[in-house]
């Protein structure tokens, strides 16, 4: 089992890609703790996995609040021991107008999609440095490299996550801590379904451009994340792993 004896901490783990990561990490033998703002769904997932013998814990927390994040982190460390792997998955979409978007809307968005990558590192790195071991995986997006009209400032946030990933990898390498990004393309989550269903014909157009002929599944992202968290990837750091079915290689 790739993650035996590991403690993996996942943000936004109640559903979508986050849920798939929680499930896969637990299946690979990890103790998995995760946070989310959706209490009902988070508690249901934790109860389901715990009933099958997995070591899983859920704590309600909003990644935009360092106080909540810190409190949740301390609770799961008390339960499962020091965190050995972090997955920054929590995020929201943004389809704002650069003229009408307010300062508060900008700050609220980046407080969810970018800032927690730093905040979770702030919490996890001390123990990782002491242990001379650790892996951080930041869920980015194809929008970090290639974006699309109407996604302001989503592309900016995801580009920033890639920058933070590179800097953390360079700065923490001397402590034998690895930091990588995973950039999904079209993945069949509730957010993607809502986006595709918002306009007639959008789903058909999206499917028609997929090099593999289909939209990806959350579990296909989770498998890559699990690999990066494990000792199967001990010389992988500072990289961005595209899980987009080849979409990023396609010319317009």
From TrEMBL:
UniProt keyword list: Oxidoreductase
InterPro entries reported in the protein's UniProt record: NAD(P)-bd_dom_sf, Sc_DH/Rdtase_CS, SDR_fam
Keyword presence, Nucleotide-binding: no
Molecular function GO terms recorded: oxidoreductase activity
PANTHER family per the UniProt record, alphabetical: DEHYDROGENASES, SHORT CHAIN, ESTRADIOL 17-BETA-DEHYDROGENASE 8-RELATED
Family assignment from sequence similarity: Belongs to the short-chain dehydrogenases/reductases (SDR) family.
Protein name: Classical SDR family protein
Organism: Candidatus Nanopelagicus hibericus
């Amino acid at each position: 089992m790739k993650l035996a004896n590991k403690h993996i901490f996942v943000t936004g783990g109640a559903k979508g890609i986050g849920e798939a990561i929680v499930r896969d990490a637990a299946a690979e033998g990890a103790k998995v703790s995760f946070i989310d703002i959706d209490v009902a769904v988070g508690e249901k997932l934790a109860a389901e996995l715990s009933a099958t013998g997995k070591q899983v814990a859920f704590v309600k927390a909003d990644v935009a609040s360092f106080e909540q994040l810190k409190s949740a982190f301390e609770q799961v460390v008390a339960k499962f021991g020091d965190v050995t792997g972090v997955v920054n998955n929590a995020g929201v979409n943004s389809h704002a107008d650069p003229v009408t978007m307010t300062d508060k809307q900008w700050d609220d968005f980046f407080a969810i999609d970018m800032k927690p990558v730093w905040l979770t590192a702030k919490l996890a790195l001390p123990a990782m440095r002491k242990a001379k071991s650790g892996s951080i995986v930041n869920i980015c997006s194809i929008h970090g490299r290639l974006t699309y009209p109407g996604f302001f400032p989503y592309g900016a946030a995801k580009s920033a996550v890639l920058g933070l990933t590179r800097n953390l990898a360079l700065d923490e390498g001397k402590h034998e801590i690895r930091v990588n990004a995973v950039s999904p393309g079209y993945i069949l989550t509730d957010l993607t379904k809502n986006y595709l269903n918002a306009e007639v014909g959008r789903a058909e157009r999206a499917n028609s451009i997929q090099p593999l002929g289909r939209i990806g599944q959350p579990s296909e992202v989770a498998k890559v994340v699990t690999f990066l968290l494990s000792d199967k990837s001990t010389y992988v750091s500072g990289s961005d792993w595209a899980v987009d079915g080849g979409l990023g290689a396609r010319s317009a």
